[in-house]
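Exercise 3.2. Students should predict the tertiary structure of the chain below and write it as structure tokens, then compare their answer with the key that follows.

Predict this chain's 3D structure.
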Amino acid sequence: MAKGGKKGGGAKGKKVTLKMAKNAVRLTTDGRRRLDLSNMGIATFPKCDLASLCWLDLHSNQLEAIPETLSQLVALSHLNLSNNRLTSTGLPSSLGNLARLRSLNLGMNRLDTLPPTMVGLCSLQELGLFDNLFSSLPEFIKVLPSIIRLNTKRNPLSYAQGDSGATRGEGGLEEGVYLAKEGSLCGSCLESCKEERRWMLGGRRDREGDAEGRGGSYSGLITPNSVAQANQEQWR
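Answer key:
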């Protein structure tokens, strides 16, 4: 066979060696280890022993799948996988084992569902699902105990969950939402959120008697209180 012939298939992408990864590790101001491998054309998740890593940024690459070995990053608190080629089958069930994970960005991929094991992400506070293919939100999101912020902009969400605030009008679902624990809001902000919820529900019930006795669908959370204003850069 002649050499130099073109090979079929997609782009190979760049390989990240252990040396490259270690050279890219930086310390944050509070002494935590951060690895930024974004915008490098990487097509394969790096096979590196970086168990003490706290931040891992792989946004804007060519990743189609994440290996089960992700669970070895036991200290990981921030993971950015946005703007890749990930499909739902490419997300490992071991993702739910990252008990310290606080921020997970899966935006700008090809996802339509999430591993149910992610219900184990007890520390997760921020979840980015924007620019994907979700037609409904996974049920486990409702019971994540620490979730504060959820970005679902630009998904084909096609449901109405009443008091959950995930309402759908003629123009489609609002592009994104914030979720906030009720106890974290001041009195005026909380009242403003309740007022917006009443408006979203149609504004037909008495405004003073409507706030009590209606539990939202998100356990421990009030209804999504606004269209998310954060863009992709705020998730990096």
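Discussion points: The mean pLDDT is 71. Residues 176 and 229 are 8 Å apart (CA to CA).
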